[in-house]
Amino acid sequence: MIKITTAATALAVAFGAPAVAGSADPAPMDPVVPAPAPAPQWQGGYAGVELGFGHVDASPGGSDSGVVGGLIAGYDWQSGNTVYGVGFDIDATGMTLPGGILGAADVDYVARLKGRVGTVMGSSLVYGTAGATRIGLSQAGASLTDNGWFAGIGYETFVAENTTVGGELLYHGIDTFNGGSDLDATTLQLRVAYRF
Predict the structure, then answer these.
(1) Most buried residue, 34, 87, 141, 179, by CB count within 10 Å?
(2) Chain-centroid distance, C-alpha 164
């Protein structure tokens, strides 16, 4: 009888222990909080400077090459890996067209109203850009201006939290500048911008 009671007690403990253990509430788990999406790195305004090399050709009228540099400003929007924006550049130049009935003509400035669309690659942006350009000349004491178009490609990368460096290669075209020569210009410039 003692053996039967002991065996019954052992069976009760063996089968009852898991039931007791299983009835305890499991420890609560910490809620999983999704990480916030990173802020669009390229979205916002920017301003800076650019400096480089330009070549201008007038047909008829000759050609020249020289330093080109000035100011840049704009605003970008970002959607996923796509960046699109608007901007304005204005450059002074060291170029002079040698020919023409009135003599040499200094290329005083090149201004651009631009749009751009690009793809984000890590901390860099590769983009295409196009828009309207205005080129100003001075010749024999007179100021001459005309409007045309430009298109090109660019690259920009972050070197600090709010600072980017990059470059642009642009082609500009004006048919019959002020009713005279066809004018085209190519610029290759280094750009530095502060983003805010």
Answers:
(1) 87
(2) 9
pLDDT at 103 over 60: yes
Q: Which CATH number is correct for 44-195, 2.40.160.20, 3.10.560.10, 3.30.565.10, 3.90.79.10? A: 2.40.160.20
- For position 125, what pLDDT does the model report? 98
pTM: 0.79
Phi, psi of 161 (to 5 degrees): -55, -40
Token pair belonging to 164: 């980017």
Which DSSP category does 191 fall into?
E
d(CA 54, CA 108): 12
Q: DSSP secondary-structure letter at 24?
A: S
For 34, 190, 194, the CA distances from 89, given in Å and listed in that order, are 41, 13, 15
122-145 pLDDT per residue, tens: 999 999 999 999 999 998 889 999
**Cα 29 to chain center, whole Å?**
43
Beta bridge partners of residue 70, listed in sequence order: 50, 91
What is the spatial distance between Cα 139 and Cα 101, in angstroms, rounded to a whole number? 10
pLDDT in tens, 47-58: 999 999 999 999
| pLDDT over 50 at 89, yes or no | yes
